[in-house]
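re: that complex we talked abt at group meeting.

here r the seqs, copy pasted straight from the sheet so there may be weird spacing, ignore it
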Amino acid sequence: MKMALTAVNSKKKPEMMEQEERLVYNTKNLNLWYGDHHALKNINLGIKEKDVTAIIGPSGCGKSTYIKTLNRMIDLVPGVKTNGTIEYRERDIFSKEFLVEELRTRVGMVFQKPNPFPKSIYENIAFGLKIHGIKNKQIINETVEKSLRGAALWDEVKDRIHEPAYGLSGGQQQRLCIARCLALEPDVILMDEPTSALDPVSTLKVEELIQELKERYSIIIVTHNMQQAARISDKTAFFLNGEVVEFDSTDTIFNSPADSRTDDYISGRFG
Amino acid sequence: MKMALTAVNSKKKPEMMEQEERLVYNTKNLNLWYGDHHALKNINLGIKEKDVTAIIGPSGCGKSTYIKTLNRMIDLVPGVKTNGTIEYRERDIFSKEFLVEELRTRVGMVFQKPNPFPKSIYENIAFGLKIHGIKNKQIINETVEKSLRGAALWDEVKDRIHEPAYGLSGGQQQRLCIARCLALEPDVILMDEPTSALDPVSTLKVEELIQELKERYSIIIVTHNMQQAARISDKTAFFLNGEVVEFDSTDTIFNSPADSRTDDYISGRFG
Amino acid sequence: MKTPNQDVSPVQQLLEKKYNGGFLNRREKIIPIVLFIMAAVSVLTTVGIVLTLIFETVTFFKDVSIVEFFTATEWYPFSNTDPVYGIWPLVLGTLKITLIASLFAIPIGLAVALYLSEYASTRTRKIMKPILEVLAGVPTIVYGFFALTFITPVLREIFPSLELFNAISPGIVVGIMIIPTIVSLSEDALSSVPEPVRHGALAMGSTKWETASKVIFPAALSGILASIVLGVSRAIGETMIVSIAAGSTPSAALDLTSSLQTMTSYIVQVTTGDAGFGTTIYYSIYSVGFTLFVFTLAMNMLAQFISKRFREEY
Amino acid sequence: ETGATTDEGTEGGGEQLQGEIAIDGSSTVYPIAEAVAEEFMLEQPDVQVTVGLSGTGGGFEKFIAGETQFSNASRPIKDEESQALADAGIEFTELQLAYDGLSVVVNKDNDWVDQLTVDELKKMWVDNGTAVKWSDVREGWPEEEIKFYSPGTDSGTYDYFNEVILEDAQINKTATLSEDDNVLVQGVTGDANAIGYFGYAYYLENKDNIKVVPIVNEAGEAVEPNAETIESGEYAPLSRPLFTYVSNAAIADEEAVAAYAQFTLENAAALAEDVGYVSLPEEKYTEQLETIEGLK
Amino acid sequence: MENTARVKSEEMVGRIDGRLMKNKVIKGIFLAATAFTTIILMVLLYRIISQGAPYLSWDFFQNFASRRPEQAGIKAAVIGTIWMMSVVIPTAAILGVGTAIYLEEYAKKSALTRWIQMNISNLAGVPSVVFGLLGLTIFVRVFGFGNTIIAAGFTMALLVLPVVIVASQEAIRAVPNELKEASFGLGATKWQTIYRVVLPYAIPGIATGSILAFSRAIGETAPLIVVGIPTFVAFLPSGYLDQFTALPMQIYNWTSRPQVEFHNLAAAGIIILLAVLILMNSVAVWIRNRFQAR
Ligand SMILES: Nc1ncnc2c1ncn2[C@@H]1O[C@H](COP(=O)(O)OP(=O)(O)OP(=O)(O)O)[C@@H](O)[C@H]1O
Ligand SMILES: Nc1ncnc2c1ncn2[C@@H]1O[C@H](COP(=O)(O)OP(=O)(O)OP(=O)(O)O)[C@@H](O)[C@H]1O
Ligand SMILES: [Mg+2]
Ligand SMILES: [Mg+2]
Ligand SMILES: O=P([O-])([O-])[O-]
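got the structure back, here u go
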């Protein structure tokens, strides 16, 4: 297994070391409880701009919890307590002054199951602009096209952008959801197992898209598919039982992990 | 990739050549249409007793359609037309005399998503017996235990078999669904991507279970995970666009496929 | 059929017996027929209603000209000298009540439904819904006296020119009566929009209101429309509130502050009243009933048409 | 008192009767009918009496269909109805039970109306195309529009008012009509310029909140409705008799019905007063009892 | 590119305060609407309870109707309503669920099916008086039941039938396909699957929807009046072809009497009726919670 992963990994383009170390997210001593259940334990993680950061780990280790905390979608779960800080571009995301609406505008999110709105393809993308008070038809039209192109979907749907989004295949829907994020020109895109509900062909398309997007966006992606993490990410964080066991370049994690638990997990000895 | 697969595959135990060539299923010139869409094209496939037969192929190639035809679950889809024959133990499954209820009793099925009934664990397994008119408490009790043992679940749930099945984890639920099949002592078990909704640990458990079950049952499994096919199956059929491109021993398919399309697919050049 | 090395289990033995003994199940054939007959009952009900109404209506039109029925602007069947049967005042009465009730109940009902489904805590929702549902079952006479002895006096404090019997007070109370129906069903429709859709919108930085108004509400529209149709149908069909609080004066005036009569309250007036069997007045209730039936039928058709047009799948 | 009637009522020798008696009809008569049924069932628990209130006309409809043995009416039977009964082969007897004094009432704050004549009533209530003000009725009364409250045109009460006051002329179309007399009470209570009429019982119950108007009778006296004036006939012409119609065949064939008819007449006087109506003179009941006797 | 994106984003972020304000205002309006509705309904309840509660006594339950308010009771009406509901509930439930099963599980998507479906949603909107007229003509006259329990019960059952059907259909439609497949996959027949998998799963939905419909049947007056249900009944029915009276009829009658004591009795009767409704709704909630604990 490990061999195979290495092979794939080596195809990845070399890390861009020249880029200065700017962090989009800096998590410091984050703890999170669902009621009494301590789901995230003392997380410390600095996420670099324009990186694809993968979060891997066995089921229930807190991957989704962490990523949902980054854009405060976790607020929607009743009975959640947190302490510690998360800084987004040096602003504390838990502070009163930092409105969640602003945070979520700057940080897009793609979910496990494609969740387009029950509207037309066009309206799905225009939605974000409209709620933000952008009414100019021309800007909207241009953005719709640009976003769909950005999500590598334009050619497939350009003739039917006014048809319902639910008529698209699963993979197309997921790319539509990505396009929907892109319309707001986010800074970071969070993805929680974005391909786990998709067939292999669609998965491949989405993976290719992620590779393109990383030119312009910082991407944090949760995946339970280690090959995927190996294929597409620059950095990988390995979560276990709510803790970060190891966080390093993907190469290191998959080829010479420092922690034996990481090694065990990667090589399929558990999880 | 290919290398990796071979490595995994080589771990498999050698095929049992000594066993006489008895077929559980013999598909002859099967064609199937969803309305106008020709989904299965002239399928010819003989499936051997006590084999694990894997069906692989890209999404939409007709894997699920084929497996659903084998126990006539396809009847539930309106507007399906078939021609050709499928013989199960030399009986035409499409003939009037062969009641679907009997066919489905002899041929168990496990679905992509674990789908236990919203009942207790015990009731889930007793269900099949009850609908077939078996009321004897003792027989039922014994069968429940035997089936749960058969599905490698007994130890985990023996203290709570009267609790709701929905309290089990995904992987346990899937094994419960397998146990549910076993209760009817089927001859063949059909599985449609039984691990695709499971986390890696649970996947592993189910795979191990399949290895055990093949001692007593004929198993036909659809999977989009080629490693899985390589790990667990004796024979593999590669479907493409509703056709069987190649059907051979798993070793052959993965190491020296006759058809170049198979090779392309196995080595990840498409799909 | 068994592999030889396998001892035959009791289960297989039993199954074997079952299939060898033939698996002819008559039940499976009979049940759909029985169920179809059950489904036919509701069709027969409609047929029954139409027949019941149409026979007596035809008799009615032997005495009264159909032209008068649709064109005369006066409904005065009790006049001993020359009764007039022009349905318009009763239709107008029904329209007034329905209109006021709808204007009152639809915005409030939807606001409450949105509040409960999008803003309120699960606990509030769990408490409020059963309460509202109980109130949906309060007998309408109760609402009738509530209109007459509470709402009307309050309104008359504010608008002294309002007459004791008027369209506004019963209209509002009919509205109050249908609010629970609208809230309960709309809330169901709103909360059955899948959570991921809601999260999708929130994750883009939209506020709850934007999520509710631009995503959830349109997605639930067909369910919401259905709840409105049911509520408005009940407003059209409401009898007791109107009989008690709106008087029983068929009036062709557009004015909302004076007494009126609706189609339903006319029917109840006659059935509890003095009209002898076989009189024209007696038959007139069937003609009014028929008009009412056509009225609600038309509204339901319209609503189904609208709901089909705006349906958004999820 | 009831003890005495009991002995006579069950003159078959205290035997217990059985059977079902269905009564329907006028809602005005309903309280009396209910009271009679209640008392009767105390004595004859095996006779099942039901009383409905489908209105006078609705009651006759059932009576004609043979579904009821008694039909209560707040007006005498109409020609069409007796014709229909004749067609159906049902012979019947009319029984008078009590009087109801239609009470003309005005708002408590109305200090100008002291009495009204029949002509004045007619002038006010008949629709003459012009809005009527109090000042149109009598000089010196305020120049305010009169608000009319009347029972629905489909009620026995309206029927009677129509007969003696309106004389088949169209009722003032501005009048507010309601089937429910309590609703009319509310109307008159809430409206200073209101005038209305309804059953005596409703006035009696609300006499603190509304003012009854004495009506000038043929002898020229202004008479207020009360038990004496109604019974004696001084309160005229607005006191009206209340009826029940009974099927002759039922009396002849069913002991229970005969006993019930008898019981009704024997107790109507007391029970009617209990529920707010006025009893007939004693001899009227005796006469009718004899008629019943003759039908058995 | 980078630049324009930033600018746009800033622009959007700048509008957030206004949007939040709007959200707050609207939430306030919605809350006000909810409070308003609640208050009105509370006032309604308060008026009824304060008027009727003093009249609730053991005698009130024990006695038949009477001309004397202090002796009048609600026994016949309560028992009569129970008898009537014992016709309404099984009739509407069996027909309603049966129809729903037929439409959801057996019917082909044909013009006939669509027509039946449309017919059902139309019936749901037909006024109750019209059902009264139907009951009067068909059950009372044509079938010759007279104004008995069975006639009134059938009339009411037809009145609530459409709502029961629609609620059951929704509940049945909500049964995951996977469960049906699992059952078929084990060799269950169609009816076995419906009976053992679909119905148990759908029961909470069916129950909650239907109980709301039945609550309506308990409180409806107009159809009973039209059907001609008597008001004074001083005996308990012993069979379905007996006459009876029902709660709303008794309440209706009491409200129309002159004496204020009767009006208070009516309020007491309404309290009883509400208690019955609350009881039925609690049963619905209980069923919902019990079956949803899966
Ligand atoms: N809403 C919740 N309430 C209580 N506990 C929760 C909730 N959501 C998640 N948890 C618990 O928190 C832990 C972490 O859950 P989380 O969903 O973050 O795991 P995950 O790593 O995303 O797993 P998976 O790979 O299965 O998605 C788990 O133990 C889970 O049971
Ligand atoms: N109910 C249906 N009606 C019409 N077309 C269908 C239906 N089900 C499947 N198809 C079509 O038949 C073809 C084969 O579908 P099938 O589900 O068998 O593919 P599959 O190989 O199982 O794919 P996957 O890996 O995505 O499960 C596809 O083109 C699909 O779109
Ligand atoms: Mg997760
Ligand atoms: Mg498939
Ligand atoms: O019920 P009525 O006395 O008005 O016929």
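couple things i noticed - Residues 1-19 of chain B have pLDDT under 50 and may be disordered. The two ends of chain B are 14 Å apart (CA to CA).
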